[in-house]
Structure formats: C-alpha cells, structure tokens
C-alpha cells in the first residue's frame, strides 16, 4: 500500500483513507449500483432484498501487504452474504480476505494480457 497522505488515484478522486490493512485483507467500497437496484419496471430494489446467490462488485480502497492479485482502484466480485462492515469517516466499507474474491476487473489486466504465458499460484 502506498503512503496514506498521497491523493487517491481511484475514479472517485477522494482523499486516501487513514487505514492500513493487514495480511491478506482488502477494504472495499460497494459500487453504487450494488447498493440500490431497479427492476425492469422501474421499481427500486433495496440492497437488503435477497435475490438468490447474487454476487456484488466493489472498488478496492486498501489492500494488505500479503495481497497478490488485487490493487487499490480495482473492482472485485465477491459474495456479500457473509461480510464484515466497518465505518470510516462516516462511510461504510466492507472487509474481505483475498481468497473470498471471485474475480478482479481492472484496466491493467487487459494491458498485461499480451505476452502472458499463463496463471500460477
């Protein structure tokens, strides 16, 4: 993780959070689309409504030193059923383990795709 006093390079351009994650923990902010959805008829579906086993997208705001596949600013896909929420500066965030992330979406992944020989753990 970079210096907390540096300005954030995320899409939201907010000030860096005064949080340092430990081990394989990731601090994420739920995307606005995940917080409230609309049906095809325009009815608002609150985030608390259960829709089967729906996964959620969130933006990574901080990552611990042992996180290998995710960086700040990436979007991650995870199961929101068993999560830990925390409030920092009057905003709600979610804490995940890297192993609980199902997918990562980031522009850097498309750029790194060329010349890659394969994935390994």
TrEMBL record:
Keyword list, A-Z: Chaperone
CDD domains (alphabetical): cpn10 (cd00320)
Pfam family, one: Cpn10
Protein's organism: freshwater metagenome
Coiled-coil zones: none
Name of the protein this chain belongs to: Unannotated protein
GO molecular function: ATP binding; protein folding chaperone
């Amino acid at each position: 993780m970079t210096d907390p006093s540096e300005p954030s390079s995320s899409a939201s351009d907010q000030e860096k959070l005064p949080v340092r994650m430990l081990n394989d923990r990731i601090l994420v902010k739920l995307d606005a689309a995940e917080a409230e959805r609309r049906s095809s008829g325009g009815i608002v579906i609150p985030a608390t409504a259960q829709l089967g086993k729906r996964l959620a997208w969130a933006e990574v705001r901080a990552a611990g030193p042992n996180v290998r596949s995710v960086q700040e600013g990436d979007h991650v896909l995870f199961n929101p059923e068993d999560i830990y929420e925390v409030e920092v500066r009057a905003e709600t965030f979610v804490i995940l383990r890297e192993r609980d992330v199902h997918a990562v979406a980031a522009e850097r992944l498309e750029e790194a795709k060329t010349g890659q020989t394969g994935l390994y753990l």
